[in-house]
Amino acid sequence: MKNNLIIFFLLTGCLGVALAQQDPMYNQYIFNSFTINSAEAGTRNVGTVSFLHRWQWLGIEGSPATSSFGFETPVGLKGWGMGFNFTSDRLGPEQNQTFNLAGSYQIRLSEKYRLSAGMSFVGNMRRANLDDLKDLYDLDDPDMARINTFSPNVGGGLLLYSAKNFFGVSLPRFTEYRLTKMDMLPLNQLRHLFVYAGHVFEVNENLWIKPSVLVKFVHGAPTEVDLNAVVHVRKMFDVGFNYRTGDGVGLLAGIKLRDHLILNYVYELPLTDIRYGSLKTHEIGVRYLFGKGPDHSIDSPRFFN
Question: How far apart, in whole angstroms, are the C-alpha atoms of residue 144 and residue 193?
Fold first, then answer.
């Protein structure tokens, strides 16, 4: 049974769409969009340290699990930002570690709007032990049975924003590349394009509503659309929902524990063909805000908290 599950996750999770590897995706980018766009670095006007862990499809051995740690902050020179993110993603016998070092620069377009441009250097380390697939494939060649690769890349993005509006475009990796040397199990890292936008509606001084949408384009894969809505109450609580086409729905919650410490949680239920039994996904995230950037003119409610 264990081997069957490993094979299932490898084939459906890694090879199911155009024999390709897609980046791990989680719902809490709603609270910290730097995870998908380097141009977001420094635009909050305070520094942010964040940690996230995602348990996907609990109850199945070898199911995906993702951990992410990062920070982003304005730097001394006005208009500049920088950030770093490290993600570890596990799927059955496969492990991926990705680090991202990013820089950004913001320019003022008008009294309300700014444009931020970001660039990032990306490194991906991938390891997999395919010994458990020997019953399915002839993996006598050690180079085929074990995968250990490092792949550098560069990415970038743009962000147009004001205190209550935002529109972003991001290409986290500019180039695609081959992840394995095996002809029988060719696996490619695909290019992702993210386009997202949102607006904050201020109902009153204690209630804000932020609807947003994100579209993910991946060559050879169906286009994914995220529809999100988050309600911010009394500058302390966040509640909301997320719907991802072809994937699932999620319920979001957040609470400000202290002035600079925020806890977020997401409960997700799949709507795909794998939705048997009691498969559920949980995400928990912690963010700590520190310092104050050189520009005090924008205290943007688009970030909430």
Answer: 31
